[in-house]
Amino acid sequence: MKKTIAVTFAIVSLATAGVLLAGCGSKEKKTEVTVFAAKSLNGVMDELCEKYNSEHPNVTFQTNYDSSGTLMTQIKEGAKCNIFFSAGVSQMDELQAGFDGGDIVEGSRRDLLNNQVCLVTWKGSDTKVTDFSNLSLAKNMALADQTVPVGQYTRKALINAGMAGSEYTEVDQLTDDVISKALGGLEINNCANVGAVASAVAEGANEVGTVYYSDTFGYEDQLDIIEQLPNSLTGDVIYPVAAVESDNISNEELEASEDFLTYLQSEEAVKLFEKYHFTVQ
Question: Which residues form the signal peptide (predicted)?
Fold first, then answer.
C-alpha cells in the first residue's frame, strides 16, 4: 500500500513539474504583434485577431486603425508596426521602397482584398442625388482627405467621369475648393478617414458621402447606398498586406506575423472578410 502511494506521488510530482515547465516555456514565447490597418478593416480585423488569439494564446495583438496615409506616415516616423494592412496600393508601395530603420519583409506582401466605393446617404434624407453623375444636386458632402485612399478613389472617379474639369488630370490637384467649385458650390466636409465619413452621413450631418462597401456593414438601418461606383471610374480598390521589419522587431515577432498573414488567407478568414462585404483576391 505504501509502495503504491509512493509511486502515485512520484507520477503526480512529475506531471506537476511538466505542467510548470510547460508554463514557463509558454511564458517565454509570449509574443505581441502590432497591426496597423486601414479604418475600413476595423470590425473584421478585431474578429480575426480574437479568433487567431483563441487558437494561439501565446500571440496577442495591439491594433491601430486609421487612414492608410496616416498609418504609413507613423511607420516611416518610427512607430513600431509588425503588420501593415493598407486600403491603397500606393501607401504600401511607398513603404516597400524602404524607409529609415525599416522595410517591408521580402516576399510577405499579398494583395489580399478588393472593395468598392459607394455613394451613400442617410435613410430618410430625400436627397435628389440618384447617382454619382448628379452629385452636385446635394447641398453638402462628407469626403475623406486627399491622403486617404477612399478620398483618392473618389477624386479619381470625378476625373474619369469628366466632372472635375478638363484642366484637372491628377488626384492631388483636386482640393476641396476645386471640387466644390466643379460641383456648383457643393459644401465639402473634409474627413480624416472613411469611418468619419460614414458617421457624418449616418448621423445626418452630411447629405451624401463616399465610403467603401465594407463600411456599410452595421449601418444597414442608417445608410442607403445610392450607387456602387464601377471600377472603370475608381480603378481597382485593392488592399495589400505585408509584414514589417525594423531594428526594434524581434525574430519571434516576425515569425508570428508571417503565421498570421497565412491565417488571413485561410478559409475561416475568407468567410469573415466576405461577411464584411470584402472580396478576397
Answer: 1-22
Q: Which domain holds residue 224?
A: 117-228
Statement to judge: residues 45 and 105 lie in one domain: yes
* Residue 2 domain flag: no
Task: Compute the chain's Rg from CA coordinates.
Answer: 24
Query: Are 140 and 170 contained in the same domain?
Result: yes
Looking at the structure, tell me whether residues 210 and 140 fall in a common domain: yes
The whole-model pTM stands at: 0.84
Query: Among 269, 261, 142, 136, which residue's Cα sits nearest to residue 194?
Result: 142
In a domain, 161, yes or no: yes
Q: Are 244 and 177 spatial neighbours (Cβ–Cβ below 8 Å)? A: no
pLDDT in tens, 104-131: 999 999 999 999 999 999 999 999 999 9
Single out the residue of 90, 49, 43 nearest to residue 68, CA to CA: 90
- Whether 108 and 125 map to the same domain: the answer is no
Cβ burial of 32 (10 Å; 0-12, 13-18, 19+) is middle
CB contact set of 4 (below 8 Å; sequence gap of 6+): none
User: What are the pLDDT digits (tens) for 234-273?
Assistant: 999 999 999 999 888 999 999 999 999 999 999 999 999 9
